[in-house]
Amino acid sequence: SSNPLLSCSPSPMRGPLLAAAGGAMGGAGGPLASTIRAKLTAALQPTHLEVRNDSPRHGGPPGAETHFGVLVVSGRFAGLPLLQRHRLVHEALRAELAGPLHALQVIARTPQQWQSDPRAPPAPPCLGGSKRERRRG
């Protein structure tokens, strides 16, 4: 089933990409993006990490940090099913998910999976809406 709180990106991992490869922490971004990058790096020692702020696509004010997509490539994911990989990401960002982070799209791969196919899958379709919006119907 699809989740309306996920990314509305029209194409794979496009938008303000804040990439860090091989441990290098490059890229710009707001404080929440920096926190996400730092916490995922500390928890998962990724060999590749992309943090994408999708907030502008959700009608937030300029500079909003509420909707993100992350692509995490980590050896910690080896042998784990997808659900367990997502749980590791969510655990690392528990405080943010309980507060300012409204939606998070997670792509979690092992280094071997990333090496064989270094592309992010397309983001799920945007179904609109937010927690503050009342649904009709």
TrEMBL record:
It comes from the Eukaryota. Pfam families: BolA. InterPro entries: BolA (IPR002634), BolA-like_sf (IPR036065), BolA/IbaG_stress_morph_reg (IPR050961). One of its GO terms (cellular component) is mitochondrion. SUPFAM superfamilies: BolA-like. Residues 109-137 are annotated as: Disordered. Belongs to the BolA/IbaG family. PANTHER family: BOLA TRANSCRIPTION REGULATOR, BOLA-LIKE PROTEIN 1. This is BOLA1 protein. It comes from Oreocharis arfaki.
